[in-house]
């Protein structure tokens, strides 16, 4: 099982849908959802400290945590060292790479500050760019 974490609007549900080859339109995640071997989390849980305990407890059910950073929005960064609170390995995924104004370098820096170690995967849930590489990585680790 994989848990996906990141700020509101970072593309967590769209990423989950792309990894599961699900063509549904992403809707706002209101609560922690278990779908297709993945755990989708509301962005507020990563942005409001009182919800951190819910993320930590839920992560115990996952084999890997994917931390998502939108490559076009740096106004809601995750706290420094945020990845360190998870009892599972954390992998960084940069989303929305196909949108004008995306900045992969800035997104990598945000993930690094949040405590996520390389490698980072750059993807577009809309075009499918980078999804195969991420899927292969997850399969190699027995997560998919």
UniProtKB/TrEMBL annotation:
<dbReference type="InterPro" id="IPR027417">
    <property type="entry name" value="P-loop_NTPase"/>
</dbReference>
<dbReference type="InterPro" id="IPR012381">
    <property type="entry name" value="EutP_PduV"/>
</dbReference>
<comment type="similarity">
    <text>Belongs to the EutP/PduV family.</text>
</comment>
<dbReference type="Pfam" id="PF10662">
    <property type="entry name" value="PduV-EutP"/>
</dbReference>
<keyword id="KW-0547">Nucleotide-binding</keyword>
<protein>
    <submittedName>
        <fullName>Propanediol utilization protein PduV</fullName>
    </submittedName>
</protein>
């Amino acid at each position: 099982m994989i848990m996906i974490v990141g700020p509101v609007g970072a593309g967590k549900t769209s990423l989950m849908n792309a990894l599961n080859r699900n063509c549904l339109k992403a809707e706002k995640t209101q609560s922690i959802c278990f779908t297709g071997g993945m755990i989708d989390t509301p962005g507020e849980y990563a942005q409001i400290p009182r919800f951190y305990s819910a993320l930590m407890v839920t992560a115990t059910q996952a084999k890997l945590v994917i931390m998502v950073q939108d490559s076009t929005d740096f106004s809601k960064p995750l706290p420094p060292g945020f990845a360190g609170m998870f009892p599972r390995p954390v992998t960084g995924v940069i989303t929305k790479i196909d949108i004008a104004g995306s900045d992969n370098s800035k997104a990598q820096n945000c993930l690094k500050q949040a405590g996520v170690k390389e490698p980072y995967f750059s993807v577009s849930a809309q075009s499918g760019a980078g999804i195969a590489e991420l899927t292969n990585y997850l399969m190699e680790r027995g997560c998919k």
